[in-house]
Design brief:
Chemotaxis protein chec, alpha+beta, 7-stranded antiparallel beta sheet, globular, 27% strand
Length: 206
């Protein structure tokens, strides 16, 4: 199955509902770390699946990745990616530790998975509420590897239904001072059939 061509109006609607969802996710994450977190949706676009690792900084960039499957009325995947240094800072801030190694400890990994779960749940609850569709995240999975390897199985799964992915890309910013800035990217990757469901729901919600 291939994507129905998206016009600028479709993309604007997707940006609008995604901004609502990420607003709820930002509130949830702010409450979790006790600091203001700002999230923005700079891109809603269609991209070749093979280009996704490049969008994460290059296939060989080491990242911490949390992946979740989309369940319910919409199917696909969600991908939360932090560069290695940002993952360490985030875990350290959440756990009140300056130990760089804690990010890859059992408790550090559990913390990052919980961040992914909270963000995905808040985002999908808000998005599903706007679109009147049931959207549920699966249990998060964690990987610490090069970006190409982290997203590999997600891309393989998506490529079974087409060569193109819808990318709703979100940037994290506003974590404390610039010297300790935590960067991250959040991707919504619905499969082609689910994109049709999302667009139909967006039209109904207009």
């Amino acid at each position: 199955m291939s994507f129905t061509p998206l016009n600028e109006e479709n993309l604007d609607l997707l940006r609008e509902v995604s901004n609502i969802g990420m607003g709820h996710a930002a509130t949830a994450l702010s409450q979790m770390i006790g600091e203001t977190v700002l999230l923005r949706v700079p891109k809603v676009t269609l991209a070749d699946i093979a280009d996704v690792p490049t969008l994460l900084g290059g296939a060989e960039t080491v990242v911490a990745g949390i992946t979740l499957q989309l369940l319910g009325d919409v199917r696909g995947n969600m991908l939360l990616v932090f560069p290695e240094e940002s993952a360490r800072r985030l875990v350290g801030r959440l756990l009140g530790s300056e130990d760089d190694g804690i990010a890859l400890s059992e408790i550090g990994i559990s913390t990052l998975k919980e961040v992914g779960n909270i963000l995905a749940s808040a985002y999908l609850t808000a998005l599903g509420g706007v679109l009147h569709r049931v959207m549920i995240p699966s249990i998060p999975q964690f990987a610490f590897d090069m970006a190409g390897a982290v997203v590999d199985y997600v891309l393989i799964e998506l490529s079974e239904s087409g060569d193109t992915a819808l990318l709703v890309e979100t940037e994290f910013h506003g974590f404390g001072d610039l010297a300790e800035k935590i960067n991250g990217h959040f991707f919504l990757l619905p499969d082609p059939a689910s994109l049709e469901v999302i667009l139909a729901a967006v039209e109904e919600a207009k």
